[in-house]
Amino acid sequence: MDAKLAAFAHLAPADVQASLTALTAATVAREIARHASDTRAVYVCGGGARSPALLKLLQQALEDRGVAGVPVMMTEALGVPPQQVEALTFAWLAMRCVAREPGNLAAVTGAAGERILGAIYPH
Predict the structure, then answer these.
(1) Where are the domains of the chain?
(2) Is residue 58 exposed (0-12), middle (13-18) or buried (19+ Cβ within 10 Å)?
(3) pTM listed for this prediction
């Protein structure tokens, strides 16, 4: 891997970061346009959510893809801090497992049907 990256050692870190940010925005917008063109809002979480540049590029990329007028916001707008989305997801999955209820949507995951995810091992 280092040998492949060595060819790009002359690039400024800020340029690499800008390219990766633009790639992220373009990829997300492309897939929203492809699979969810009727999206009414986009909520961003994780470390990228605090990047005004990413949010702006994502907004522009959505408009460029014909998904115009869709607000791009942090999950904070829903009352969920961007850094807590993953933890909340696993808490929800644990709750479903304890309740012996499925934690998947087969239409989304491609599974053969609904499944209870996880396991409980008493000690």
Answers:
(1) 11-80, 84-123
(2) buried
(3) 0.77
What confidence tens digit (pLDDT) does each residue in 20-58 have? 999 999 999 999 999 999 999 999 999 889 999 999 999
Q: How far is CA 112 from each of CA 21, 94, 106, rounded to the nearest angstrom? A: 36, 21, 6
DSSP-assigned letters across all residues of 44-80:
E-SGGGG-HHHHHHHHHHHHHTT-TT--EEEGGGGT-
Question: Closest by alpha carbon to 80, among 55, 38, 43?
Answer: 43
* Residue 91 CA neighbour count, 13 Å, CB half: 5
